[in-house]
Amino acid sequence: MLRILFVLILLGVSVTAQTKAGNRSAPATLDAGSTSGNMYSNKTLGMTYKVPEQWVLRTEEMNGRGEKSAGEKNENSGARVLLGAFSRPPEAKGEDVNASVLIAVEPVESYPGLTEAAQYFGPLTEVARAQGFMRDEDPYEVAFDKRTLVRADFHKNVGARVMRQSTMAWLDHGWAVSVTVIAGTEDDVEDLVDRLGLEAVSSKK
Fold first, then answer.
1. Contact by Cβ (8 Å): 139, 169
2. What whole-number distance in Å separates Cα of residue 151 and Cα of residue 180?
3. Which H, E and C letters describe 95-132, residue by residue?
4. What pTM does this model have?
5. Which of 3, 41, 117, 134 could form a disulfide with 18 if both were Cys (CB 3.0 to 4.6 A apart)?
6. 135-160: per-residue pLDDT in tens?
7. How far from the centroid of its chain's Cα atoms is residue 60's Cα?
8. Is the Cβ–Cβ distance between 35 and 124 less than 8 Å?
9. Residues 92, 49: Cα–Cα separation, whole Å
10. CA 162, CA 108: separation in Å to the nearest integer?
């Protein structure tokens, strides 16, 4: 988790997770999903994400060279990025906020002692504050496609601009799943959030 978190902080993105006390079972084997056109889908998690047109994918780079790509099955080890997409290449400079979306997972068993998702936003907020982000309000539950997720919103002043970030997290198949979006306006953030699709119950148990 720490390796991915540091990578995301460098990109102006942060990731969250949640766990349940006493849930120490190994996570189920997780297919990393696949992208066809601009649609990412993951049957194991019952999840889709519609990436905006013309965005660039950086999933493999964020996982590190030599590791399994987004289209391959992963072993039950460590955190990984399932989808990393940006409105322009992260290395390309621009006047506006480089909007992005990141979907990441890690084993629930990686965080013993937590009893609910909201608890993880404590250390996350400290990391975010160190990067200049401020949390707008306490984490809160949201009903999303018949599932209940936990969400937290942040903002960061960058000169005359404001970078806005929202992260949602939930548990599935022994994995903590998080979706983080960054954009320059609240409307753009909500548009990126609305591109997430979730089945009422994951397709595989």
1. no
2. 10
3. CCCCCEEEEEEEEHHHCCCCCCHHHHHHHHHHHHHHCC
4. 0.80
5. 117
6. 899 889 998 887 889 999 999 988 88
7. 15
8. no
9. 24
10. 33
Nearest to 133 by CA among 165, 87, 98: 165
Tokens of 4: 């991915």
Mention every residue, 6+ apart, whose C-beta is less than 8 A from residue 165: 12, 13, 14, 128, 133, 153, 154, 155, 156, 180, 181, 182, 189
Asked whether the beta carbons of 167 and 151 are under 8 A apart, the reply is: yes
**pLDDT tens digits, 33-53:** 999 999 999 998 999 999 999
Instruction: Provide the CB-side half-sphere exposure for 76 (13 A, CA).
Output: 11
Residue 125 Cα distances to 35, 39, 122, 193, angstroms: 31, 30, 5, 20
